[in-house]
């Protein structure tokens, strides 16, 4: 059984001493995590990474940055409601668990960080990287790495990449440049296992994976400190940190609801279609009369979105509270969204069905996915051989384009491939397209 006494820790990656606290500080340690993420370069780059719809455009749609900010807002509410419920039943809670009141801040910071590892072009960027090693020119490196390392490369995972970004000592950046708390780091690990364990669709914590081989020892150190429940040693696998469920729920709530709002702005869905999908989630008997007083369809959808998100926050926070014992025991094998009561469950399933049919298969969305394959694959087929072999002036020129922070002193194939992937996965959509066109001779760079 996992215990909150261990699960909530202000120990920082890279400093490794427990914070003693200072009552005069303006921010808690977990609010510091949030602020460090907000001001970081990887977070700012999310503004030019695709959420669902192509960027840029004359009509505003969400990108990875705006999505992450909204997820953080929802996550803070989920954590705060859970804390308030705990305190209702235990007035002495704060004396026994001094950090328990920080759950909302921990979850908010985890929400900000949850998409940091996603490459350009959304999930198609992940698939393109995997494809390069599975089916394309990258296959030639199979015999140069271990089986576990090859699993990392052929199943490239944004979740694992986020943990790497937050903990890897990039050249010139100092050890643990983010220096986040252990609890915040653990809160983003939806799949706390190595890649060879991360393909079991029946187990929520092993549907994908959460750390590369290069970060396995670091993740194990965090998990051990927090008392996370270990499942297997080889391949390494843990049960989730409980706060992962709240980070995941915040993400699920936002993308399910807000993708509908974007689809309406782009005229993919009519107002009537969106209203029909969201009304069952509003939980407000007066919602129809309130909608009738509003003339603007965008404003109506904003109201429907706000009421729907509020309903889902309440449902998920109550479920998290009620299922606390199973979650701490590592026995919860479903997401919070998948556990809410009918008729809300049916409403969410309907939204998912319509989203797949009309949004995620919309022509421009499919086009950006196809472009992602071509662009990411084209960049990898130039830079990976160049950095591994460096056998020509052309290779030297390509290596010169890689920022020094991503270069490694290690000489093994796995480490050098990871260096290229650090560079490529951090690119924004627009930068990746521009670089692809230039190195393929499709366009020429401007001077200055």
From TrEMBL:
Q: What's one GO MF term for it? A: dGTPase activity
GO annotation terms (biological process): dGTP catabolic process
Task: Tell me which residues make up the HD/PDEase domain.
Answer: 60-265
Keywords for this entry?
A: Hydrolase
Q: Which Pfam families match?
A: HD (PF01966), HD_assoc (PF13286)
Record's SMART domains? Answer: HDc (SM00471)
What this protein is called in its record is Deoxyguanosinetriphosphate triphosphohydrolase
Q: Tell me which species this is from.
A: Hufsiella ginkgonis
């Amino acid at each position: 059984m996992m215990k909150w006494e261990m699960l909530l820790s202000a120990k920082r990656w890279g400093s490794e001493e427990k914070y003693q606290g200072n009552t005069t500080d303006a921010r808690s340690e977990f609010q510091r995590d949030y602020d460090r993420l907000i001001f970081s370069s990887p977070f700012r780059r999310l503004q030019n990474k695709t959420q669902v719809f192509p960027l840029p455009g004359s009509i505003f749609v969400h990108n990875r940055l705006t999505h992450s900010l909204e997820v953080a807002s929802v996550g803070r509410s989920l954590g705060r409601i859970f804390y308030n419920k705990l305190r209702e039943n235990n007035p002495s809670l704060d004396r026994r668990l001094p950090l328990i009141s920080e759950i909302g801040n921990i979850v908010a910071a985890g929400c900000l960080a949850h998409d940091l590892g996603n490459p350009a072009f959304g999930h198609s960027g992940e698939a393109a990287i995997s494809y390069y090693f599975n089916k394309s020119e990258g296959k030639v490196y199979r015999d140069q790495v271990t089986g576990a390392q090859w699993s990392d490369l052929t199943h490239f995972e944004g979740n694992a990449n986020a943990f790497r970004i937050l903990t890897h000592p990039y050249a010139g950046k100092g050890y643990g440049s983010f220096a986040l708390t252990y609890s915040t780091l653990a809160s983003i690990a939806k799949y706390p296992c190595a890649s060879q364990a991360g393909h079991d669709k029946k187990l929520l914590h092993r549907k994908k994976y959460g750390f590369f081989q290069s970060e396995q020892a670091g993740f194990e150190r965090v998990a051990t400190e927090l008392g996370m429940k270990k499942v297997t040693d080889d391949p390494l696998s843990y049960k989730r940190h409980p706060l992962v469920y709240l980070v995941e729920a915040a993400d699920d709530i936002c993308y399910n609801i807000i993708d509908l709002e974007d689809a309406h702005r782009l005229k993919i869905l009519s107002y009537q279609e969106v209203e029909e999908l969201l009304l069952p989630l509003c939980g407000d008997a007066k919602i129809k009369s309130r909608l009738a007083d509003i003339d603007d369809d965008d404003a109506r959808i904003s109201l429907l979105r706000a009421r729907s998100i509020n309903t889902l926050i309440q449902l998920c926070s109550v479920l998290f509270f009620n299922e606390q014992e199973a979650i701490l025991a590592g026995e919860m094998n479903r997401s919070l969204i998948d556990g809410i009561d009918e008729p809300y469950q049916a409403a969410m399933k309907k939204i998912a069905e319509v989203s797949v049919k009309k949004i995620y298969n919309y022509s421009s969305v499919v086009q950006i996915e196809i472009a992602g394959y071509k662009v990411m694959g084209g960049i990898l087929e130039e830079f990976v051989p160049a950095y591994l072999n460096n056998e020509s002036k052309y290779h030297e020129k390509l290596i010169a384009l890689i920022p020094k922070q991503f270069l490694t002193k290690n000489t093994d194939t796995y480490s050098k491939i990871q260096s290229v992937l650090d560079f490529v996965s951090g690119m924004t959509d627009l930068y990746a397209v521009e670089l692809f066109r230039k190195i393929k001779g499709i366009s020429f760079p401007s001077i200055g």
